[in-house]
Amino acid sequence: MGEEWLLEVRDLVTEFRTEHGTVRAVDRVSFEIEPGKTLGMVGESGSGKSVTALSILRLVPAPPGRIAGGEIRYRGRNLLELPVKEMRGIRGNDISMIFQEPMTSLNPVFTAGDQVAEAVRLHRRVSRSQALEVAVEMFRLVGIASPAERVRSYPHQLSGGMRQRVMIAMALVCRPDLLIADEPSTALDVTIQAQILDLLRRLQGELGMSILLITHDLGVVAETCEEVVVMYAGRIVERARTADLFASPRHHYTAGLLRSVPGFQSGSARLLEIPGMVPSLHQLPHGCKFRDRCPAAQERCREEEPELLPLGASRVRCHFPVEVGA
Amino acid sequence: MRSAEPLVQIRGLEVHFPHKVAWPRVERGSLRQRLRRAFTRRSAVVRAVDGVDLAILPGETLGLVGESGCGKSTLGRAILRLLDPTGGAILFEGDDITRRPQAALRPVRRRMQMIFQDPYASLNPRMTIGETLSEPLEIFGLARTTGERRERVGALLEKVGLRADAIARYPHEFSGGQRQRIGIARALAVEPRFIVCDEPVSALDVSIQAQIVNLLLDLQAAEDLTYLFISHDLEIVRHVCDRVAVMYLGKVVELAPAAQLHAAPKHPYTQALLSAVPTLDPATRRRRILLDGDVPSALDPPAGCPFHPRCPVRDKPAACFDELPPLRRLENGSLAACHVAR
Description:
heterodimer, A: Rossmann fold, 4-stranded antiparallel sheet, 32% helix, B: Rossmann fold
């Protein structure tokens, strides 16, 4: 069981202690990633997608954060039970991560090449000059022009798109099997975003890694992922193949999100909106967490929180899912 | 009804910023030459907005799109005289306000307002919403008594869909979408005719963006407003704008009705920009025009057409390399600054 998964997350619970009590940022989240595939994770701010990513790498700041339950199995081993030292060997080597903000993720006082070379030397026994050669090679791989000169540049001398390429070079230098990309193109302009997404696709083809792509942009998901999980208030509310999700979303939140994007609907002047706002994790409603904003909410939604259950080829957390073709 | 007379007209507008190069890198020459060069602070000029002509008609929404650094926000601020233009002219309701001193601008300021991208940074955290909304009323003498002010603030809150009890609360008590509603209410307080909306929904979550876009559309209809809508999001721009101007390196490179711009973009930059937007339909991935490299520096824009180093057009005519293409009308009515576009 579970042999074919590269990563298997089971009932992950991550909590944060705050002034107003403990909140569950991630609540019983389960998903799997197949080798060589891309899983998209979409949701709005506070939906728990970034905390899920940080939990996988055990990078949740503790305190105030705490992984309170569940399993994260990477190649069958539960990462949550690994000694700190072994976990360090996994980070950057087997699983790496790139972040949204390429400027704040790079150290301003070291050259870009030094920072990539450092990642090499953390995991491989090589000399400084050999590591720098690997960095030059990586710069070439991620499409940085004149890589031998660029390794000597400092982050402030690079453009946003270039910095994100450096981050990707750093993340991939040890050829990880899983890349977690947290909003990798959000801070970039559209033409640069297209370059970066194209680069990730190409590198995935060449290196054969799996990608967990976290984004709020449904368009990015539509173009890059085979499968998608949609998160809301710390929970997965829908999980489907990308084509199915966009053709016939089954959760009312997913359907509302798709309808509220201009360009999805044509003609009408007003956009269809989801009323209200994302509930605070401190005051989650009883029952279904989306019911206050849901057009199909009924008495049962107030009383009982739905489970994530199979529906057709998808999984949906809803008592009254959207009809296909509705 | 739209009259032919533009509400805002700008002609050849330039906003140039001085840029001091503090410690230039000097690698060649004798020691003496190198020292002299190293210690000479050369000044350069950032051509943020470089010769823009635009007319905004009463009641319309003109979109201004482009990537970071293209000058779209600078242009928006210069029109409101929040930045001083270094050249060209701005006409508001037919009056030239380009060089009008700040004190004399006051009556004009009541007629034009701005909505900012970051609704948190643009609200004073130590003022209640009531105080924030009363301030413009006091400044312009629009409400004399406290009771009158309360009444008007209440009406503003209702207009933007906030509850009346917001009046005594502080910005941190509100979500991003609600804060943006407050920002909109503040702009509306002085009953302007013209509002520059600078990325008004970019900082908001997808499900909230639609609410704010709808609010802006409703208010425009109810209050007879004219918008300059600055955004990098081409889909939203298509949705809310009547006409769209595309900017690149401080210049307008294409201007067309929104639907036409999306259906038949003429400038190679517009084509690349539109093709880069991820589509929502996984089945029809569009053919993407990938541009090489980054936007060049506005300190040292390329000669000829500013877009030529990244332009995907093959076998470019010589003019692209040494002649600045003027904005000219094409067969379909679009305006494009390109030697090649037909």
